[in-house]
Amino acid sequence: MEIEEATTRCKAVVERVERLPLSKITSSCKSTLLRLANSELSFLSRSSLSASSSLSCNVGYIEAIIHILEQPYITGVSRVCKPIHLSSKTGCTREVGVTSEAAHIDIVCSFHRQPTWFIVSSRNPKYISWDSLGKNKGLKVRIEQIICAAQTFQALTPTVIVLFFANGLDVEIRGNLVKDFSFRELKSDLSHFEFAFVDGLEDDWINVV
């Protein structure tokens, strides 16, 4: 991505965030999104790269989040881009081998009036791995942490968890989602963005999309 293009997109993101009504999203959530977008703009303005050079930035990730928030059936947005810290004393953290880490939840909201967590990725599918490698956390562990957080924090417990892959997902990883977590694909009107759907966890207490 070129700096000029990224800057234009970041400015558009700021305008889109400012247009989100407070009847849908809290002012603190808007502030968080504006801080992220303005941080990207600051990074771009400080960059010494020429306009013809390419770079990597987070504008696609923020755009994907805004795209979701703009949908009419998304309401009651109370939390964006925040981690939920997991205690090593929690039973499910021991089961997945997690100690004092955090599950990153991109959006806490209502999705068609159901309490929902959105996990958003704008990464190139070829860089999304299933298993962890060194310090790089794989998708499998991240999902396990998110489910653990959902089971642990009753005040935020969702009935739906959406995994939203803005640039799609590798066929093999889709298969792993089906095999390991009973995922299924959700048919929705979220434009051209793709996702996967999971359902039927223990005790049928939650759907993971």
UniProtKB/TrEMBL annotation:
<protein>
    <recommendedName>
        <fullName>DUF1308 domain-containing protein</fullName>
    </recommendedName>
</protein>
